Amino acid sequence: MTFKPTRRKLLRGAGAAGLAALATPAIMRTAFAQSKELNIWAYDGFVTDEFRSRFEAETGIKTNIRLVTDQGEQFNLMAAENGNYSADIVTCAGHRFYQFVDAGFLAPVDRSRLENWNLIEEEYADASWVSRAGERWGVPLVVVSTGLLYSTDAMEKPTSWDVMFDEANVGKTAYQIQDFFQIVMNYLGYDGSAASYGGNVDVAQRAVDSTRDFLIAQKHMVRRYYEAATEIQQMMVTGDITLAQAGSGPSSQLILEGLPAGYTIPREGGLAYAYGFNITNNAPNMANAYTFLNALLGDPENGAEIVRSTGLSATIKGTEALLTDQEKEALALEPEERARLSWVDVETAAFIFDLIDTAAEEIRAA
Questions:
Q1: Which of 60, 89, 130, 327 matches a 20 to 30 Å C-alpha distance to 350?
Q2: How far is CA 213 from CA 168, 218, 360, 366, in A?
Q3: pLDDT: is 128 or 215 the higher one?
C-alpha cells in the first residue's frame, strides 16, 4: 500500500507519535524476554504496518514498537536501564552510533546469523561508519540528507542559507538545533565536521562558541526549535513557517502529497548520514532480532514500503526498481546538490557532538 500522508495525518502525526512513545514503555517491560516477542525502538515508518503484519504471520513473533524521535533521548534511556535493556533492536544514526558502541550498549553484528547482509547495497554495507574497533555494529537501513525545505508559494528556489537569517523571513523559520548547528558552522566558514581540527578541542570550542553566539543573536528569526519531523510538516501545512532546516524524508513526503514545497542543498552545503537497526548487547530476544533483520533485508518490497512511509532512500538492493517515477523524482537531488553534501565524520564526532549538545542547551536557555 502506498503511503500518502494526508493533511489530516500530517496535522495529527506529532500527537500520535508522542502518545505512542509515552504509552509503550510499560507494555515493553511486560513483554520482556518472552520467546515469541521482539522489542524494537524505531523512528516512525521504519517498521511498516505491511511488513510487521507479514513478519508476525509468518514467524509467530509479536513485535512491540516504541517510537523514538531523538538520539540523545534514546541514549539516556538505555543508560538508565544499566544493561537490562527493554529493547532488542534500537535505531541509531550513522553519525551517532559510535556513542552507543563506546558505551557498551550494542552487540556487534554476527554475520554468520545475518545471511542476508549481502542484500544491502555495497556502498552502505562497506561504509566506514558501520564499523568500529574491527566489528560491524548495525544494519544500514535508510539514507538521509539534511538541507533546506521551503515554500514554493512564498519564494523561488533559494541558493544560500542566507534566507534563514534574512529579516524578511522573521518568525517564519524552524530548525533542529543540533542538526542545523554543523551546517551553520560551515556557513560561517568553520569546519562543521571538525575533521580539520585534528582533535584539537580548543580550536573546535572556539568555532562552536562563535556559532552559538551567532544563533543566539538570530533567535528572533525562529518560529520554533523543533524535535520531531512531523512538527515541520504541520507548520508547513498550516503556513506557520516558510523555511526550515529539514531532513529529506519529511520534505519528500510533503512534495509527494502535492503541497507547495521544495527541497534543496544550498551552496554552503548540507549533511548526509544513515540510520540503521542495531542489536542491543545481550538482547533478551536476540534470536528473534536476527530473524527480523534477515526477513527485512530479504525482499526489496520491504525497502519500497519504507521509502513510501518515510520519504527516505532505502539501502536494500532492488528497492529503486519498485518505485514510481513520481517517488523517484521526489527523492532525487540534482548532481550539483549531491556534491554539496558531506558525510559526518565519525571519528571527530566523538568530541564535536559533545560540544554542540552543550551549545544547543545554551541557545535554548539564552
A1: 89
A2: 21, 9, 11, 10
A3: 215
